[in-house]
Design goal:
Elements: E1 2-8, E2 12-18, E3 24-30, E4 35-39, H1 52-73, H2 84-96, H3 99-114, E5 135-143, H4 147-153, H5 157-160, H6 171-180, E6 196-199, E7 203-207, E8 213-216, E9 229-233, H7 241-262, H8 279-287, H9 310-313
Antiparallel strand pairs: 1-2, 2-3, 3-4, 5-6, 5-7, 5-9, 7-8
Helix pairs in contact: 2-6, 2-7, 3-7
Length: about 325
C-alpha cells in the first residue's frame, strides 16, 4: 500500500492511496476518521457491481488512509477495533495484571469459555437459538490511558520493523520487547502505566444456519467513550487462570496482526502470530481466498505475501 496526503481541507484531508492491485483511490478522511469521499476509477462505483476482491481492496484502502492520517498528522482517525496502538496497549495491560485482577476483571469470561468443557456454572446463559460450535465470546476493555499517550504509541511503527522475535518467546516477553522498542525521544508509556480502568460484561456472538451473525450484548460501564479493545475468543479449556490470561493477551496481538492485514500491509515480525484474532475476520480467512488462513495454527503462512508499510521502512 502507498499513500500520500494531497491536501488539507476545513474538515480533514484528501489522501491518495494506491492499493496492492495498483488501483488509485482518492479518499477524504475527516479529522474524526469519517470517510466523506472515495473515488476509484479502477472499480465500479456500485459495490454490487464489484467482485469480492475489489470490494476488499476498497476497504483496505479506507483503513490504510485512516491509519496514514493518524500516523502522519496525529489525529484520532482509526476505528478503535482496527487500531494497532490501542490493541498493543490493551495486550500489555492484560499481560501485566496479577492473578487477582485477572479474576476480578475477566472472571466471568474465564468461566464462560471453560463452561463448555467441564462442570463450571455458566455466568451468562446461552440464547436458545445458539448452535453448538457456532458461538464466540467478547468482552470490552477500557484502559486508564490518555488519548495523547495512545497516539504516541503509534510511533512504535517506526521501530517495530527492527524488533526481532525468538522462537518460543512468551507473549509477555514479546509485548515487553515491543514497548522497549519505542524511540528514546517519544512519550510512549511503559507497561506499568497501561492499566485496565473498566470492562464490560460478556457479549455472546453466534451465527445462524444462514450465516447471519447475532450478538447479545453484556452491560457496559458508565464511560462516555469507546472501548480500547475487545477480546474475541472461542470456548476453550485453559489450564488455569494464568494460561487464560496469556491467551487473552495473545488474542489481542492476533488482532494487531488482523489490523495490518486488513490494511493490506504485511504484519511486522512481532505480530506474525497464527491464531484467532477477531472471529468475523477469521471467518473471512476461512472462506475467502483473498486472504491466507492466519487464524489457523497449523496453516503455512507466507508472511511476505503483502508488502511492508513503506512509510515505516523508508
Amino acid at each position: 500500500m502507498q499513500a500520500e496526503i494531497k491536501k488539507e481541507t476545513d474538515d480533514g484531508f484528501g489522501v491518495l492511496v494506491t492499493d496492492n492491485n495498483g488501483a488509485e483511490h482518492k479518499i477524504g478522511v475527516c479529522f474524526d476518521g469519517e470517510i466523506d469521499g472515495h473515488l476509484c476509477d479502477a472499480y465500479a462505483s456500485d459495490p454490487f457491481d464489484r467482485t469480492p476482491a475489489e470490494n476488499e481492496h476498497n476497504e483496505q484502502a479506507r483503513r490504510y488512509a485512516r491509519y496514514y492520517v493518524a500516523r502522519e498528522r496525529g489525529y484520532e482517525t482509526i476505528e478503535w477495533r482496527h487500531d494497532p496502538a490501542r490493541l498493543l496497549a490493551a495486550a500489555s495491560a492484560v499481560a501485566e495484571l496479577d492473578t487477582d485482577d485477572v479474576t476480578e476483571h475477566f472472571g466471568d469470561l474465564y468461566d464462560q469459555v471453560r463452561s463448555h468443557y467441564g462442570d463450571v456454572e455458566r455466568p451468562v446463559p446461552l440464547p436458545e437459538e445458539v448452535r453448538p460450535g457456532h458461538v464466540s465470546y467478547m468482552q470490552d476493555i477500557y484502559l486508564g490511558l490518555s488519548d495523547e499517550a495512545m497516539i504516541d504509541l503509534l510511533t512504535l511503527d517506526d521501530a517495530v520493523e527492527e524488533v526481532s522475535v525468538t522462537a518460543g518467546e512468551s507473549i509477555e516477553d514479546r509485548i515487553a520487547t515491543l514497548l522497549e522498542a519505542a524511540p528514546a525521544d517519544t512519550d510512549v508509556p511503559d507497561a506499568s502505566a497501561l492499566t485496565v480502568e473498566a470492562v464490560s460484561g460478556v457479549h455472546i456472538e453466534w451465527d445462524d444456519e444462514a450465516g447471519q451473525y447475532h450478538t447479545q450484548w453484556g452491560a457496559e460501564p458508565d464511560l462516555d467513550r469507546d472501548p480500547d479493545a475487545r477480546f474475541d475468543v472461542l470456548p476453550f479449556a485453559p489450564e488455569d487462570i494464568e494460561d487464560f490470561q496469556a491467551q487473552l493477551a495473545r488474542n489481542l496481538l492476533c488482532q494487531v496482526r488482523d489490523a495490518y492485514v486488513g490494511m493490506g500491509v504485511a504484519p511486522p515480525a512481532p505480530y506474525r502470530i497464527k491464531g484467532l484474532g477477531r472471529h468475523q475476520i477469521a471467518t473471512l480467512y476461512e472462506h475467502d481466498d483473498f486472504y491466507q488462513r492466519y487464524h489457523d495454527p497449523d496453516a503455512e503462512i507466507d508472511w511476505n505475501a503483502l508488502e511492508p508499510d513503506p512509510a515505516v521502512v523508508e
